[in-house]
């Protein structure tokens, strides 16, 4: 079955998967619905978390990764209704983020000075 997970720096050497800290365990959420995963990603971004990418993946691959890494996993079914405070974190991220992560935001992209961007913009506009 295909599920959706949240990745940071997707398809790079510095890729990381979103986890929740539940007690002393890490929990990876697998969303049955892409819309639910996208909504969760937007909620993370609203909390000033780096923007995750919603990625489809086979649930068996996630489960295998979790077993190897010592993580827990949870399928969030489409139309899920929380029954407890713990379940609420499956739909809405906790209000607090970890200070340190196992991955770092991708800062390898070179920045272009504004004057150079303006020159490129003018050249592109001239092509129209």
Please provide a written account of the structure.
This protein has a single domain (2-126), classed as Trna Endonuclease, Chain: A, domain 1 (3-Layer(aba) Sandwich), CATH 3.40.1350. The chain contains 4 helices and 6 strands, in the order E-E-E-E-H-E-H-E-H-H. It has helices at residues 34-46, 59-69, 85-88, 114-126, and strands spanning 2-8, 16-17, 20-22, 25-31, 53-58, 72-76. The chain has a 3-stranded antiparallel beta sheet with strand order 2-1-5. Strand 1 (2-8) and strand 2 form a beta hairpin. The termini are far apart. The model has no long low-confidence stretch (mean pLDDT 82).
Overall radius of gyration: 18 Å
Name the average pLDDT. 82
The separation of the N and C termini measures 46 Å
Task: Give the CATH topology.
Answer: Trna Endonuclease, Chain: A, domain 1
Please write the CATH class name. Answer: Alpha Beta
CATH architecture grouping:
3-Layer(aba) Sandwich
Low-confidence stretches: none
Helix fraction bin: 25-40%
DSSP, total strands: 6
What's the structural domain tally? 1
Oligomer class:
single chain
Helix count? 4
Please state roughly what percent of the residues sit in beta strands, choosing from under 5%, 5-15%, 15-25%, 25-35%, 35-45% or over 45%.
15-25%
How would the global form be characterised?
A: elongated
The spatial strand order of the largest sheet comes to 2-1-5
- Class from helix and strand fractions: alpha+beta
Biggest sheet overview: 3 strands, antiparallel
SSE order, as H and E? EEEEHEHEHH
